[in-house]
């Protein structure tokens, strides 16, 4: 377990964030492997089917990720303040939340799978496969929710290495199972989904066992309650805005996916490959921002506000180094990157993916600043400003996509990304510069 209130900010963030970034990189590798194996061994339509399901899976994921952030920030503050009994109670409260909420959301998602796909105007030639993938994915949602809570608790305790080890094992297992189920057993899209289900299930159970062992290392006296309504309220205060953020982003993805669907399965396949690569980069930046949230929460808990500022600048330097290879790879080797997903891509699929990457990738240097600012606001519990920054980005992207598509076709959809990022970054940085994250007692100084 790592105390983020002592070492130099750059060193502390590097040691803490690097395992987190590697964890999410492995997670994205096996998400990419799903689509690569689907496209190469089951065909372009299978890739399109998985891609068409993606926005719906992201809405489901939003609840797990939002709860991860909520419990992580609350536990970080308690850990920074050395309130170890509260740490244990908050962890157990979070786990109960995962089991109950995960079960309820799984049932609702199963009911809504087909209606949502119809609402998105999913092409008939890929509808059935998309529905199969979604249903199997939903079966494993409780495992996904539980794993994210465990990861959030580990990160709050400054231990970002243990989740990395589990995720490496899960990623490798997922890729192996993908190949066996799809290439050998010819299960098609269902094989992709079952591989993810099995990998997530095993990883979540092992993570829970390891987390309980980690908590035993914290010395506490007396009875430790398993549930606290106070802790739950604090978690929800941060989790609900994060869930709304992720959900609104995902809902925006649904609107954009519906526009993409109108261009046919080849464009869907090309977009699916490109958006998966884009998600890889954005998720890495978001994970780095989550590290900033934990760093900020611990230092705010100990009253070290100057260290928060130093950490913000250090995080920007780290993110710039991370962004460079993504920008170079996606712009200089875009054709090769898209062709990885398909054995014999159509010209339309290849052109779509390349064009998306050309337009979007150079702006990673902008969006990384926004996400880092958002991470600081979230860690400081400045929820209102975090939400304003997030929603401005989403609203602009969706509205601009609808405005530009009649004039530029599918290219208009891709153009909405950088414009939304630039404007929302200006908003997020202005909140940081004006000290909206500081307590009222510090603002007056």
Describe the structure.
With 445 residues, the protein is mainly alpha-helical. 85% of the residues lie in helices and 0% in strands. The longest helix has 37 residues, at 44-80. The mean pLDDT is 86.
List the helices and strands and how they pair.
Elements lengths: L8 H34 L1 H37 L3 H36 L4 H16 L1 H16 L4 H24 L4 H27 L13 H33 L3 H37 L3 H28 L1 H6 L7 H14 L3 H16 L3 H26 L1 H24 L6 H4 L2
Helix pairs in contact: 1-2, 1-6, 1-7, 1-9, 1-10, 2-3, 2-4, 2-5, 2-8, 2-9, 3-4, 3-5, 3-8, 4-7, 5-7, 6-7, 8-14, 9-10, 9-12, 9-13, 10-13, 12-15, 13-14, 13-15, 14-15
Range of helix content: over 70%
Overall pLDDT level: 86
Taking the alpha carbons of the first and last residues, their distance comes to 34 Å
Order of helices and strands: HHHHHHHHHHHHHHHH
Stretches where pLDDT is under 50 for at least 5 consecutive residues are none
Structural class: mainly alpha
Largest sheet: none
Rg is: 21 Å
Overall, the morphology is globular
If helices are DSSP runs of H or I spanning 4 or more residues, what is the number of helices? 16
Number of extended strands: 0
The share of residues in extended strands comes to under 5%
Q: In short, what is this structure?
A:
The chain is mainly α and 445 residues long. It is built from 16 helices and no strands.
Key descriptive features of the protein:
85% helix; mainly alpha; single chain; globular; 445 residues
